[in-house]
Amino acid sequence: MSAAGSSAAMESDPQVEAAILQLCLQHPEGVGNDLVTGPSGPLAHMDLAVRVTSLNVLLRSGKVSMFKQGTTLLYKATQPQDNRTKGLSAEELLVYQVIKQAGNTGVWTRDLKVRTNLSQPQSLIKSVKNVNNPSRKLYMLFELEPSREITGGAWYTDRQLDREFIEVLRETCFKLVERSESPHICLADIAHFVKDKGLSRIELREEDFLTIMETLIADGRIESIESADEGEPERYRTAVLAVPASTPFTAIPCGVCPVMDQCCEGSQISPQTCVYYSTWLDF
């Protein structure tokens, strides 16, 4: 018999409550339903209806929590920080425990419904959307910050890539490298400046700044310099041989034409029929 589905008419017995709580404390990994309400458990000498009622009282008071391990229903004595679940029904406690076990990676609505079929109670849990699967809702504990795999990290706002923020941060980091009073500047100095000036509305990690610096290196605007001293951080400077914004070849239509390899004299795509070439020559 499950405590969650019982509607015993008898009153709870404080001694039975204490016995159930003690049993849970003796098994911190969880006590099976058979040990609490079963006919052969250590509490079998106590009245079954009283045991069920007492267990429900412990669940509602937050002294005992209920969760599933596979298909097995288990009860555990709650830790002091879990007292905020006091007053929840047995079913709502089950929802809370399922979401708690999922941590900051969340649990899909479908999985939550399969295991509990209940909605979110009070302000203990919240729903979030995965940036990679926006149509799927995830649930996690209210106080947890969703993992970056879910939110997309610092570069996403409302599940949309924030291109403007990325470009502003790129230019800021480049200017810091360009105007640095010391010969070379390290990643920690850049991160400290941005955070100290409040240039970002969100908390950025050092790995976020590293990503920005790597894009500037890829663009040929800066270059990294490894320190000769072991343990010293990598430093940055403006690129000695900066990649030019344009070259003579990219200045003509052929240099940026996506079908240049198909262009030849006498074919459908040819210099004679190229409207871009005509416009360029007119200029």
Count of individual beta strands: 11
| Fraction of residues in helix | 25-40%
What proportion strand? 5-15%
User: Tell me, what is the CATH class of the largest domain?
Assistant: Mainly Alpha
Quick check: average pLDDT? 79
Provide the CATH topology of the largest domain.
Arc Repressor Mutant, subunit A
- Please identify which CATH superfamily of the largest domain we are dealing with: Winged helix-like DNA-binding domain superfamily/Winged helix DNA-binding domain
The helix-and-strand class reads alpha+beta
Query: In total, how many domains does the architecture comprise?
Result: 4
Question: Main β-sheet, in a few words?
Answer: 3 strands, antiparallel
| Uncertain parts | 1-9
Care to describe what's here?
The protein is 38% helix and 14% strand. The chain has 283 residues and is an alpha+beta fold. The protein has 4 domains: 1-86, Arc Repressor Mutant, subunit A (Orthogonal Bundle); 88-151, Arc Repressor Mutant, subunit A (Orthogonal Bundle), CATH 1.10.10.10; 160-238, Winged helix-like DNA-binding domain superfamily/Winged helix DNA-binding domain (Arc Repressor Mutant, subunit A), CATH 1.10.10.10; 253-282, no CATH class. A 3-stranded antiparallel sheet has the order 1-3-2. The protein has a 3-stranded antiparallel sheet with strand order 4-6-5. A hairpin with a 2-residue loop joins β2 (64-69) and β3. α7 packs across α9 and α8 (187-196) packs across α9 (206-218). The longest helix is centred in the middle third of the chain and has 17 residues, at 163-179.
